[in-house]
Design goal:
Layout: E1 11-16, H1 19-29, E2 33-41, E3 44-51, E4 54-61, E5 82-86, H2 90-99, E6 104-112, E7 115-121, E8 127-133
Parallel strand pairs: 1-4, 5-8
Antiparallel strand pairs: 2-3, 3-4, 6-7, 7-8
Length: 136
């Protein structure tokens, strides 16, 4: 028995230390569509953003969580370390993020013929990968 999907995409929750800084990155720099802010109880406010058909839930708490994710990118720790968006304007995205002061941890580069990536750190140090493919 496998998963029987009812939606062709995922919802991703990102707990952040600074909601305003996260919204500046995800909404203002990357251009995700802000659809709602929803109080979730327990001191959490969820900012709901659309990335294509995926819902990105930027969650901030009145009381900032004590622990942060392990820094250092993909190979610094186990667990969820990055997520990927397929795009058609990789160079423009990397340049825009860099101009806005974000750390482009992996500059645009080819990883195999016809496939290029770049990675950017959000304000909390989470890595976001952008993938541009010209494969068949």
């Amino acid at each position: 028995m496998g998963v029987e999907l009812t939606k062709d995409s995922i919802d991703l929750g990102i707990v952040v230390r600074d909601g305003e800084a996260a919204m500046k990155f995800y909404r203002d720099t990357l251009g995700f569509e802000h659809i709602a802010d929803t109080p979730m109880g327990g001191g959490m406010l969820m900012h709901r953003l659309m990335c294509g058909t995926s819902l990105i839930k930027v969650c901030e708490y009145e009381q900032t969580p004590e622990a942060s994710a392990a820094p250092g990118g993909i190979n610094a720790a186990s667990g969820y370390r990055y997520w990927t968006m397929s795009v058609s304007n990789l160079d423009e995205i990397a340049a825009s993020c860099k101009a806005a002061g974000y750390n482009v941890t992996v500059e645009p580069r080819e990883i195999r013929p016809g496939v290029r990536i770049a990675m950017v750190e959000d304000p909390d140090g989470n890595w976001v990968e952008f993938l541009e493919s010209n494969e068949g």
